[in-house]
Amino acid sequence: MIISFVKRAVAALILLASSSVFSQNVKKQVQYLSGTDNIHTVTWDFWCTGGRKSGYWTTIQVPSHWEQQGFGAYNYGRDYVTYGKNFRFEEEKGIYKHAFTVPAAWKGKEISIVFEGSMTDTEVKINGKPAGAVHQGSFYRFKYDISDKIRFGQQNRLEVMVSKMSADASVNNAERLADYWIFGGIFRPVYLEAVPKPHIEWTAIDAKADGTFAMNVYLKNAQPGMGVAAQIIDAAGKTVSGFGSAITGKDSLVRLRTTVRSPLLWNAETPNLYTVKLKLKSAAGAPVYETADKFGFRTIEVRKQDGIYVNGVKIKMKGVNRHVWWPETGRCINPRIDLEDVKLIKGMNMNAVRCSHYPPDQSFLRYCDSLGLYVLDELAGWQKAYSTKAGAPLVKEMVKRDANHPSIIFWSNGNEGGHNFDLDDDYGQYDLSKRTVIHAHHRPGNAINGIDCNHYEDYYSTQKILADTNIYMVTEFLHAQDDGGGAAALADFWDLHWNSKKGAGGFIWALVDEGIVRTDLDGRIDVNGVNAPDGLVGPHREKEGSYNAIREIYSPVKITMKTLPEGFNGEIPVENRFHYTNLDQCTYKWELVNFNRPGELATGYKVQQSGTAAAPFIAPVDKGILKLDLPPGWKNYDGLTLSAFDPLKNELYKWVWKVNSSRLVPDSLVVNKVTSEVTASDRDSLLTLKANGISVIFNKNTGKINGLANDFSAKLSFGNGPVLVSGNAIFREIKHYKEGNDYVAEASYSGDMKTVKWTMHPTGWLEMSYEYTLNGSYPFTGISFSYPENFVISAKWLGKGPYRVWKNRLQGVTTGVWQNMNNNTKTGIYPWNYPEFKGYYADVSWIEMNTVEGKFTVAAKESDLFVRLFDFYGLSGARPHPGLPSGDISFLDGIPPIGTKLGLNITANANGYGPSSEQNKVNGPAKRTLYFYFGSPKPSTENKQFTMPKVNVLTDN
Fold first, then answer.
1. Pairing of strands 352-355, 317-321
2. Does an H or E element contain 179, and which?
3. Is pLDDT larger for residue 712 or for residue 818?
4. What confidence tens digit (pLDDT) does each residue in 108-142 have?
5. Phi first, then psi: what are they for 714, rounded to 5°?
6. What positions does the domain Glycosyl hydrolases family 2 sugar binding occupy (predicted)?
7. Which of 8, 100, 223, 765 has the most crowded CB, counting CB atoms within 10 A?
8. Can you point out the beta strands (E) in 7-109?
9. What's the pTM?
10. Is residue 636 classed as helix, strand or coil in its secondary structure?
């Protein structure tokens, strides 16, 4: 009896001791052999077989691409196109060696070596023995059980041979002969992981919006009598469900089920996450292995001939295509870059991302889970597919790694013809939630599972697809090479999808200009000609004009009011384009502002009063009114701003309206203050008007400004205008006469322009009133002058900015005082110096040109004036832009749209991209009054009006 009791006590102590050991070692233990990312690397021995630094042992940083470490040669995936059919990619191999030790405490555990990504064929040896079969495929996690090859208590030798090109032709076709940079090397981390012999190998979760939870738990070496226990824990740390299952026989799979009452659901607007904790327990109840997964409750439905539903709500994709990229390190990146890219995408008010053309780093998906983006996770297959033999294991690796991310709503089985149909049903073997498989394609008739993803349709063919049978979710559209596409025409496309029953939105190509820092070209960034500058942002995420335009177009608080209407009473029509969020969950702030004046050093505006607006109750997809309670006298200010913030206080967009245009360029600009007498000199073919030291010289044979002079220094080279940019204007004569204190030169024309009346005021301001009449469609309308571009230092203006616009991309610019320095930026090309200086600028009230000859200012009496600055680059094609107006500086009533790389006649004709991409339809007269001051007007401190001091026109006073 006593002996029995002692035996039981000893057994209990042994069990207690073993439980203590278990509790310390029941989780997966990880030891990195490489670094963790492109910042934190580890030095390995290395031998490159070809190209630079080849043929000898040296060292390399891991993870990395060996090209970025100075080895081998650079290859773009389309080099075979560039260099012809006989081109052969460099058959480089990289041989890696690394010594490591293993903790003694790992003895008796299952030890694996894990590669997160290696380009491309990877052969692994441990202590001279093959770890397993050569892995083929670049973007996938793979692992080998090396438990029987490890030497405890001494160094172990890792040898890895990586072949840049695969021995499997289908692997090269799918992921190497592609329209992107291809590299070599171990570009994602390598590590050891140790687990107890009995352990949970992997899991697959299906958590529905109704709270039902199912989970496949895949076991290895589990014994009868063991059990699996699970807990679901919410974001606050509260356990909301506990459940489990016993293991019978030698189960390798256990199915767990439970229900959580009224769970907080996951969607892109409210990305609520839960954690499921799992324990594999011994027959005595001691923990053998512990692991955990994050997940979200959500239900994805494809309702054929209707739409895509998440949690019973129809959603539309506001998406972009993303390559994994950083210019210094290629596809070897770090979690900070992943996080910033998710923020960048959400900053455009997007809700979706396509992981083209391969699965991304795990950290990117985790940020999509936690911050809220719908994800298309894609098997590589750029226009050609993996063979079934090569592709089947890669599908398994991708889905096993990614299946529990709630952000992933579809699997994409390859791109643009790179679809192996035999693999379509493989995804469901590993994905318990059975997500729909799509094909991202560019050929009509390739719809699958009720979803058509056809690429690069124009506006009118899109209308036809939307009227057809399938849901249309376009996986690539509005190709954003250079300054074309992107946001150009997006407003029309987005409204088309939003208002169509079967429209599911789409994914702009692409997020980032894929420019690589060339280690063989002194660090120059190379975008491979026109192949890779496809982004809405530059390689280091420099924002193009399309970025802010998309932000406005996709704002879920949709406001289309362009100007304050007559009798504005604070009521602003609003449409709610959230899918789940009521607008009363958002916040709104207004400001009354005064804009800075010409001659002031400051840009922007000064806030005079501010307040908040009551949030209106407007349900998702409904419309309503946002009411601003503005103070008395609000009309005495220059501008009104309104900012909308989402429930997390992130700014969705800020709108700015002019309140009182007459305050911005008032009539008193030119008539209030007489500073000198205006004189006229008529000699030979020249007519000179002079006031306040400024002389304007007209050619009596052409009616154009022939020159500018003053009493103090050299001439200003502005002139050779006006020229009518569309239509015809045949000069007839010029007459001149005194009119009160002013002097008038009146030019008459035949054709589409009748008269141009020039009035020189005593202040030195020159007034120009003109009228022309056109009937028809025109790329641009208005007048031009000439001025040498190389003389210009900068431009400052009151109007929309700071980015230039196109007729089909007027969004994303707000009213303010902006200043841009002269630059020769070509969008998408080094040095990515944004905003571009040259181009079209919208709703300009005044513009001040700072030049090496001095300053001059042009002001507009009427609104909606476009100003064109010089000759500029828009988009690679037969011409670098749609045809430009004549001259150098133009004052326009209509401007052209921009096309896309994959558009109708490239840049010459964007008409097929919808209403805003058509040419300007004009039927009738256009009248304008412009004011010119060939010097630097100073702002007054009285009533915010311009004063006209007597100044040297060629110096900054």
1. parallel
2. none
3. 818
4. 999 999 999 999 999 999 999 999 999 999 999 99
5. -70, 175
6. 58-196
7. 765
8. 29-32, 42-48, 57-62, 75-76, 93-100
9. 0.94
10. helix
**Strand, coil or helix: what is 945?**
coil
Query: Which pairs from 581-585 meet CB under 8 Å and 24+ separation?
Result: 581/269, 581/270, 581/556, 581/620, 581/646, 581/647, 582/617, 582/618, 582/619, 582/620, 583/557, 583/615, 583/616, 583/617, 583/618, 583/624, 583/626, 584/615, 584/616, 584/617, 584/618, 585/615, 585/646, 585/647
Q: How far apart are CA 90 and CA 119, in angstroms?
A: 13
How does DSSP assign 698-720, residue by residue? Answer: EETTT-SEEEEEESSS--B--EE
Tokens of 790: 């190389």
Q: According to the model, what pLDDT value does residue 886 have?
A: 96
Phi and psi (nearest 5°) for 247?
-105, 125
Point out which residues pair with 49 in neighbouring strands.
Answer: none
- Distance between CA 39 and CA 336 in Å, rounded? 10
What is the model's pLDDT at position 133? 98
Half-sphere exposure in the Cβ direction for 336 (13 Å, CA): 7
Radius of gyration of the chain (CA): 34
Q: Which domains does the chain have, with CATH numbers?
A: 29-195 (2.60.120.260), 199-295 (2.60.40.10), 316-553 (3.20.20.80), 557-659 (2.60.40.10), 666-770 (no CATH)
User: 3-state DSSP call for residue 955?
Assistant: coil
Residue located via tokens 């909301």:
240
Cα separation, 628 vs 616, in Å, equals: 11
825 close to 791: Cβ distance less than 8 angstroms: no
